[in-house]
Design brief:
Elongation Factor Tu (Ef-tu), domain 3; alpha+beta; binds flavin-adenine dinucleotide
Length: 425
């Protein structure tokens, strides 16, 4: 959609007459936008393009590739475009930007209106099966018809949530033109563990904790919220680390162990000093009572402030069990060895072993068309002139926070903007 609009805009700017056709296999456009952000659409993120790249794209190769597109069509451009169709957006404290309406459909409606005004011909319910090059022309074949054009932009998305239409068709088409496809892998995906968490914990959320994955001598870590599910774990910290975990377990075949650090801001010695102090001051207090009122992830070493809530009651028996502590043990009866064992569990509570990082369940899929085969200043194939590729089918994946939609809009816009004009030598 962004690519088609940009193509029209550049045609208008230069007085070129052209016909622009958008082919969509679904009955309507923007199926992923409709379900994005839980139906509220986290459309982009606050900050300069440099800040978005820094916060949203953790791999430097991907940052370098996306840089040009994010400057060429930034969050400010996107918000102005939406505003031009009456869609006001607002920022949350964490920097995420949503339409004020709280409705993802308003974003889709804005694009639909813009596409109508731009006289973009739209064909729905027609799945593109192949694209061929015949001389200077491209022939695009859907199930029912063929279209020809001077330039083609492939914007078919990733491979997760396949019911939205993203089944990797564009990837196969890119390969038919000689493009390399890097291994597809899940990103922003939940984790399934070999042993499911106890049902009593299902739905429980731990705020701002440290989420740790280890395997093959590697230690990966993110701080954020973690959610217990009936098959494993989800929540921002888990989603963010899922791509690295998938790489670790599939590329090096490693067994990946998961842990939660309930005190990510405290070094082991600091936490030990706090527990020791507690033992000296309140010898008759039961350790489990102390844990119940203990703040999760206390900030700045302040154990009196429960900014992220306290350790959930449902977790206490498991913490006691893992530390091999009796239910009614008090500080005065807790020897040093047991205190150290509690300390170890609080800093690395075992969550289980990864069974699967489900590709289909990822909010995005990583992998796809190799970035070094795409000109990042045009989004044009370096293999086939006038073939453009953009969005999630390229081998990048952003963090949660509106970065993926922004990257899709930015790369799409750049592709459309350049599609009418040959590259300058
Ligand atoms: C549940 C969920 C929530 C998300 N929430 C957010 C969020 O809040 N913020 C954010 O930034 N990102 C979010 N994302 C990610 C974001 O939606 C995607 O990264 C983004 O939509 C990718 O844009 P795209 O244009 O590359 O592909 P898509 O938006 O997937 O669009 C590809 C289109 O191509 C069509 N297509 C595919 N194959 C063919 C074919 N053969 N012929 C014709 N048409 C075809 C598809 O039907 C689809 O409409 C979310 C994703 C999911 C799954």
């Amino acid at each position: 959609m962004a690519a088609a609009l940009a193509a029209r805009q550049s045609a208008l700017c230069t007085g070129v007459h052209c016909s622009i056709t958008l082919l969509e296999r679904q009955r309507s456009s923007g199926s992923k936008i409709r379900i994005s952000g839980g139906g509220k659409c986290n459309v982009t993120h606050r900050g300069t393009p440099a800040e978005l790249l820094e916060k949203g794209f953790l791999r430097s190769k991907e940052r370098r590739f996306l840089r040009h597109a994010l400057y060429a069509f930034s969050n400010a451009h996107l918000l102005a475009l939406l505003r031009s169709r009456g869609v006001e957006c607002s920022e949350r404290a964490d920097g995420k930007i949503f339409p004020v309406s709280g409705d993802a459909l308003s974003v889709v409606a804005a694009f639909e209106g813009l596409l109508r005004d731009a006289a973009v011909k739209q064909h729905f319910s027609g799945r593109v099966r192949s694209v061929e090059r015949k001389g200077e022309l491209f022939i695009v074949n859907t199930e029912a018809a063929s279209f020809s054009g001077d330039a083609v932009i492939i914007a078919t998305g990733g491979v997760s949530y396949s019911h939205t239409g993203t089944t990797g068709d564009g990837l196969r088409i890119a390969r038919s033109f000689g493009h390399t496809l890097n291994r597809l892998s899940p990103a922003l995906a939940p984790l399934y563990t070999i042993k499911s968490p106890p049902s009593s914990l299902c739905g429980l959320s731990l705020r701002s904790i440290g989420f740790i994955a280890t395997g093959g001598g590697m230690r990966l870590e993110r701080q954020g919220d973690l959610l217990f599910t009936h098959r494993g774990f989800s929540g921002p910290a888990v989603l963010s680390l899922s791509r690295d975990i998938a790489d670790l377990s599939s590329q090096s075949g490693q067994v990946v162990h998961l842990f939660a650090d309930l005190f990510p801001g405290q070094r082991v010695e600091e936490l030990e000093a706090h527990l020791f102090q507690q033992g000296r001051k309140r010898g008759s207090q039961m350790v489990r009572k102390f844990l119940q009122s203990c703040p999760l992830a206390p900030q700045g070493g302040n154990f009196a402030l429960a900014v992220h809530g306290t350790i959930p009651t449902a977790l206490i028996p498991l913490l006691m069990q893992q530390s091999a502590l009796e239910v009614d043990v008090t500080w005065s009866t807790l020897g040093r060895e047991k205190r150290l064992s509690l300390l170890a569990v609080l800093k690395a509570f075992p969550l289980g072993i990864v069974r699967e990082v489900p590709l289909e369940q990822g909010e995005v899929s990583a992998g796809g068309v190799a970035l070094n085969e795409i000109n990042p200043k045009r989004m044009e194939s370096r293999i086939v002139p006038n073939l453009f590729l953009c969005g999630e089918l390229l081998d990048y994946a952003g963090e949660i926070g509106g970065f993926n939609l922004q990257a899709a809009f930015s790369t799409g816009w750049m592709a459309g903007n350049n599609a009418l004009y040959p590259a300058q030598e």
